[in-house]
Amino acid sequence: MIRAARLAVHLVTEDRVPFDRLVDVVDAAVGAGVDVVQLRAKSVSARELLRQAVAMSDVIDRRCLLLINDRVDVAVAARDAGARVDGVHLGQADVPPETARRLLGAHAVVGWTANSPEHRAAASALRPGTVDYLGVGVIRPTSTKPDHPPALGIDGFAAFAMSTPVPCVAIGGVRLSDVAPLREAGAAGVAVVSAICGADDPAATSRALRSAADAIALDAEEVAP
């Protein structure tokens, strides 16, 4: 079981940031209270992503969850290399979440992107416990993902989250001022990219996000794997 609080603040890494700099950003953000680091590097080879995953595991040092974006194979390889990788976040075009669950085990964290009624229906059809959370967005237009679907806004996110029993994490253009309203709308957490990766002071930004997320107490105490 994963504590719901452990999904509250996600940092999704930005592969346009040089990796040496990214390591420092992640170290600062984790020290300031980020719950999840999702390593996303779509422009690199599997071998390079494996190297980064091992390095990130060392930097994080079990202080928060480490997920690999898209690549179940890299998550498995990183574990084989001795890294602490807690799971994956998958897009709709990636391997099925059932496969990820089978390969990574019952205690892994498996997240799945969902931003349409069809995606929600597909998640509902899964065996309970296949996915731990849905990444739902975008909330606002964002340059991080130029081909994003229409923005949901706070109200659209709330309607989506209310229609599924799977915990929902809001992502895409999330601002600090959005965190409390999103939590009030039922968000198990929020995920940001450039808000931390592009910040002059990643630690201060992470602390602010942590504080905003903690200001709204959710009823849910646990998330089933």
TrEMBL record:
InterPro entries (UniProt xref): Aldolase_TIM, ThiamineP_synth_sf, ThiamineP_synth_TenI, TMP_synthase
Lineage, broadest ranks: Bacteria, Bacillati, Actinomycetota, Actinomycetes, Micrococcales
Cofactor(s), names only, from the UniProt record: Mg(2+)
Chain positions recorded as 2-[(2R,5Z)-2-carboxy-4-methylthiazol-5(2H)-ylidene]ethyl phosphate binding sites: 142-144, 173, 193-194
Residues covered by the Thiamine phosphate synthase/TenI domain: 10-196
Reactions listed under catalytic activity: 2-(2-carboxy-4-methylthiazol-5-yl)ethyl phosphate + 4-amino-2-methyl-5-(diphosphooxymethyl)pyrimidine + 2 H(+) = thiamine phosphate + CO2 + diphosphate; 4-methyl-5-(2-phosphooxyethyl)-thiazole + 4-amino-2-methyl-5-(diphosphooxymethyl)pyrimidine + H(+) = thiamine phosphate + diphosphate; 2-[(2R,5Z)-2-carboxy-4-methylthiazol-5(2H)-ylidene]ethyl phosphate + 4-amino-2-methyl-5-(diphosphooxymethyl)pyrimidine + 2 H(+) = thiamine phosphate + CO2 + diphosphate
Family of the protein in this entry: Belongs to the thiamine-phosphate synthase family.
Residues binding Mg(2+), per UniProt: 70, 94
Pathway given in the UniProt record: Cofactor biosynthesis; thiamine diphosphate biosynthesis; thiamine phosphate from 4-amino-2-methyl-5-diphosphomethylpyrimidine and 4-methyl-5-(2-phosphoethyl)-thiazole: step 1/1
A single GO molecular function term of this UniProt record: thiamine-phosphate diphosphorylase activity
Pfam families assigned: TMP-TENI (PF02581)
Protein name: Thiamine-phosphate synthase
